[in-house]
Write a structure and sequence with these properties.
By secondary structure, the chain is mainly alpha-helical. Residues 73-93 are annotated as: Disordered.
Length: 766
């Protein structure tokens, strides 16, 4: 036959005007396989593959027969491949997805001509280590003239394969007559090494249990490659390349789901498909099972499967297709754990947040921190736990967490579980309260436990936000109203410049509920005031804040607490100012000042006066605003308010920024620059991101107006990096200022880009 199978296939496909992707989507044959056929790399596909392609191409019977004959001829003409390589490797999986980078790295390792290259491929259960190793072996086999050998070491079985068994089988595969295989293990190993010394081979050792199972098989050869897969990192082996497999990204997850369940089907329900992928934790095994379940149930919608997976109690059961089970994959690793590691693994499912450190693990296991760290590393080594982006923190895969929770329910007595949970709740609440205490006006900066100062406290509260807020929810459900109120009260000053508004809505709403449950009208007023401030200042939901003010005012009056009445009036003034009701805000700021003065609360009086300064700025009475800001600055610097050093520094910087802000419309740029410089100096050693952003912004604008465009760009870039999602309006102003600077620096294209970004930010903020 003069025409090859690939020639015929390409001609038929082009005749009906299908792309390779469209032919793949209709036939179920991968795009890669179709490409290989048309290029002649795969000359003799099997009959079922040919018939699947022919069905989509709508071929006549004689055309189908011609295509089948060409495929048969291709199989007959194909050069014989090394029998060991083809008989040893498991079947390749056609729909391997999202591993291009890893395959490229393995290709490079297979091209190296060292004596023997060792590659370790490790990762969690279900990540697709074997699938990737098999694909790589098929691609690399032709580079090793003396054969490709594959052995499943069954490292997770109760009885893993002994290295001597592999040596025996290798000797036979290398041509040693069964009767000539030495009886002694040492003699067999000697012969094994001697035979491989002059050979170039590819040896795939799948599912290794530990280093000891692998080392006896690492015989050197002339340009050989040993590829080991394991759930363990196998850090004791001197590997030339170590590849850790992670889960797939969102796009690759949908690609794999579509390759199995049908791309058209996935494309018809993109939102539900994305939810299924997320509930599978983007784990290849789970995605494969989900795809198989959909493929075997064509009447199901993807939304129906997503609903099944959405119930955490049923998720692992739903991820079962025939003999494929996610739960079984996890159980194999779990059975390898020692007693202490198994206990900690189960209890880690109680951690409320996504990641955690050794202190929470220690509380759960009721051991010291060092023992907890050792056990956490053991769990990482067996791929039941992963390290987080932040050093010293750990993270579960979502499905592994679900599995750990199942084991906890089945194996740990309920009273033991409850005591472990309460230890974690106590630790998180106590540490959160202590950390927040570093930001109050009376904070003296003295170390508390492991927290050496404000910087440590800020870092802990940021890293553990999901965990201490989770503990707050647990405490609220358990009726621990006093603990909830204690934490919510402690967070007041910390929330002033840190954290997300949504977090503080949750915290202070819980505080209001706790105060009401305890029957404390005064605490109810305190928490309502905090919540009013969050809604009005952080989230700019001014109408809601003003409505809530009425509740806060009534509670403050009912309690007879004049200080809380002052706060209620102050927060009302802030909400009015932020919503543009400046005359009303000016009157209420004065009323708040009078209330604070009557209560003898000097700090509150100065804060109310500070609000008045902002109102005067809004009324374009910039000179009067500057006078107020500087008056306040003198009071704060005098020490008469009795503030802690850190609080003094932050308030000083904030007032300097406000002074600079009011000086700017008066074009008093040297004074603006001086005030911004002073603010930045005051902020050294503190963590006040909002004020820091404002100081760099104003310094940048001042430098620009004073003729230093290059210096202005540096400051404004810093400000843009500090303006987070909670301050989108500030970010837009910074971007506009940066665009003006870039115009002067002769870069109008970049300037336009920043203006577009500023417009987008403002649009998203509406």
């Amino acid at each position: 036959m003069g025409t090859t199978f690939g020639d015929l296939l390409r001609a038929h496909r082009r005749r009906v005007r299908l792309t390779q992707e469209e032919l793949a989507g209709g036939s179920g044959v991968s795009v890669r396989a179709i490409s290989d056929m048309e290029r002649g790399r795969a000359r003799g596909p099997q009959r079922r593959t040919v018939e699947a392609l022919a069905g989509v191409l709508a071929l006549a019977r004689h055309e189908v027969e011609e295509l089948l004959d060409a495929a048969k001829e291709g199989r007959a003409r194909r050069a014989p491949e090394p029998p060991v390589a083809q008989s040893a490797l498991p079947p390749d999986v056609a729909d391997l997805t999202g591993r291009d980078d890893e395959l490229a790295a393995l290709d490079a390792a297979g091209s190296a001509r060292r004596a023997t290259s060792l590659v370790v491929l490790h990762g969690p259960p279900g990540a697709g280590k074997t699938t990737l190793a098999v694909r790589a072996a098929y691609r690399l086999a032709g580079r090793f003239p003396d054969g490709c050998f594959f052995f499943n070491l069954r490292g997770m079985d109760a009885r893993p394969v002994h290295p001597s068994e592999v040596v025996h089988r290798m000797l036979v595969a290398l041509g040693v007559d069964e009767k000539q295989v030495p009886a002694g293990e040492a003699e067999r190993s000697d012969l094994y090494r001697a035979l491989l010394r002059e050979r170039s081979t590819l040896l795939v050792l799948d599912n290794a249990s530990d280093e000891g199972q692998v080392r006896p098989l690492l015989a050197t050869g002339a340009g050989s490659l040993v590829l080991v897969t394991s759930r363990l990192v196998l850090g004791g082996l001197e590997a030339g390349l170590r590849l850790g497999l992670d889960v797939l990204d969102a796009d690759d997850s949908l690609e794999l789901l579509g390759a199995i369940a049908g791309r058209a089907r996935v494309g018809a329900e993109p939102v539900a498909a994305a939810r299924v992928a997320a509930l599978c934790g983007h784990l290849p095994l789970a995605l494969r099972i989900a795809g198989n379940r959909l493929a075997s149930r064509p009447k199901w919608t993807i939304a129906h499967l997503a609903e099944q997976l959405g119930d955490e109690r049923r998720r692992l059961t739903a991820l079962t297709a025939g003999d494929l089970q996610v739960r079984t994959a996890f159980e194999m690793s779990y059975r390898q754990l020692g007693g202490k590691a198994a206990v900690l693994f189960r209890r880690l499912s109680l951690v409320p947040g996504a990641d955690f450190g050794a202190d929470l693990a220690a509380a759960l296991a009721d051991v010291d921190r060092f023992s907890a760290e050792d056990t956490l590393e053991e769990l990482v080594d067996v791929s039941l736990l992963d390290t987080a982006e932040v050093p010293g923190r750990y993270v579960f895969h979502d499905l592994v967490r679900v599995f750990a929770g199942e084991r906890l329910v089945d194996e740990d007595p309920a009273p033991v579980v409850e005591r472990a949970r309460q230890r974690v709740v106590d630790l998180l609440l106590d540490t959160a309260v202590a950390a927040a205490g570093f930001f109050g006006p009376d904070a003296d900066g003295s170390p508390v436990g492991d927290l050496r100062g404000q910087e440590d406290a800020d870092a802990w509260l940021t890293a553990e936000t999901a965990n201490w807020t989770g503990a707050l929810r647990w405490a609220a459900r358990d009726g621990r109203h006093g603990d909830v109120l204690r934490l919510a009260t402690a967070m007041h000053w910390y929330s002033d410049q840190r954290g997300r508004g949504e977090t503080w809505v949750e915290v202070f709403t819980a505080g209001v509920a706790a105060a009401r449950a305890l029957g404390s009208v005064r605490d109810e007023a305190v928490q309502l005031n905090f919540l009013t401030w969050t809604l009005g200042v952080l989230l700019r939901r001014h109408d809601e804040a003003l409505a809530l003010h009425d509740e806060a005012w009534r509670a403050a009056v009912a309690s007879g607490d004049v200080v809380e009445q002052g706060w209620a009036m102050h927060y009302r003034a802030v909400s009015e100012m932020r919503s543009g009701r400046l005359e009303a805000a000016r009157g209420d700021a004065r009323r708040a000042q009078v209330l604070f003065r009557g209560a003898g609360y000097a700090l509150g009086e100065q804060i109310a006066l500070s609000c008045l300064g902002l109102v005067l700025h809004g009324l374009e009475r910039y000179g009067d605003a500057v006078v107020v800001h500087r008056e306040l600055l003198g009071v704060v610097r005098s020490g008469r308010l009795g503030l802690a050093p850190a609080m003094t520094a932050e308030m000083t910087a904030q007032l300097l920024v406000r002074t600079a802000h009011s000086l700017a419309p008066l074009d008093r740029w040297p004074e603006v620059l001086a005030a911004a410089d002073e603010a930045l100096a005051a902020l050294r050693g503190t963590t006040a991101p909002s004020t820091l952003c404002d100081a760099h912004h104003l310094r940048g604008v001042a430098l620009h107006r004073l003729g230093d465009a290059a210096g202005a760009r540096v400051e404004l870039v810093r400000a843009a990096g500090l303006a987070d999602e909670q301050r989108r309006h500030d970010l837009a102003d910074v971007l506009d200022a940066l665009a003006d600077v870039l115009d002067d620096l002769g870069d109008p294209v970049a300037a336009g880009g920043f203006r577009d970004r500023a417009a987008h930010v403002r649009s998203a903020d509406r």
